[in-house]
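SEQUENCE-TO-STRUCTURE ENTRY
===========================
What this section holds: a protein sequence and its matching fold, both as plain text.
Question of interest: how does this chain fold, as expressed in backbone structure tokens?
***
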Amino acid sequence: MLLINSLFSFEEAIENKLICAGKLADYAACQCDPSAGDYSCINAQFVDANVFLDISTNYKYIKSVTFHGNNFQDLTSTPLFGSDSQNSLIKLNLSANYIVNLNSNALRNMPNLQVLDISNNEIVFRPRDVDFLTHTPHLTQLYMRRAFTVTMNRTQQFDLMLEMFRQAKLEYLQVLDLSYNFIHNVPFEIGCPFPALQTLDLRQNFLKNFIVNETCIKDVKTINLSRNQFYVIPDDFRALANKAQPETFLLRNQFYCDCNSKDFITWLRSTKSVREKNSLVCDRASPKMYIGARIAEVPLNKLTCDEPLFTSHAFSNFANFLILAFCLIQIF
């Protein structure tokens, strides 16, 4: 009994240690650890982004802040943490807050921020906010996973996103995550604003090809194109991939293997640019007996075009529906 009481007392002491000061003390979803500079409010259902001021008002050492699962919609038009510079802040997680408007001054006074996560939001880029990232020149990781609203004009939105990247001058950025964003075409200059980029994550989009400025990705070590719509590997992508570093690309897709696939299969077997290529399989095949077969092993001389591979517009729409449904599952 004494041991049980001691355990309860220990847990209570830990909980009390993490209780926040100020207004955030009223929310069990908020935990504050001033010794580590770590502050979080997860699923607290805040609607007013001014709650960030409560952290800067009560604490001087701020290293990591996570506000996930709230309902801000708009970031503040003034700096999130007020007028004082937050020189120690290196990680800011604003994911899953239904953010629509970023506001250009929201990240001001965070000069040493290294990790920014604005995933799982409904962001709409506006011309007046393209300097949103100019206040965080030392970013090394930027996560924008399922960050944009589905219904907006994609071409215009991605043009504004690319302009935001250009203006930010993120010379130290190593990781850019744009997965789960319903992207059909990647901007040609996508890698150019980031001279130190090492990882570009484009998983779970609607890409059928990947054509970008090859000089801007020559030093990138990982480009993840898995779970897109690469049923075959187009000629122009192969030419691009041949100039990339070894094992740069991840390409787990639903590949079709038939008599028309021999060229891309031959290339896939010989290239060094595709990581885990020996694990890739034929999702659909003619004849059907090769469904699930490893592409590296399927006999080319036995592939036929006798079986329909469902490449119709109707199947494409159905695939898009499945991907959209999967993305929504990830949110909830």
Residues 290 and 298 are 7 Å apart (CA to CA). The first helix runs from residue 2 to 17. Helices lie at 2-17, 52-58, 154-168, 235-241, 262-270, 313-331.
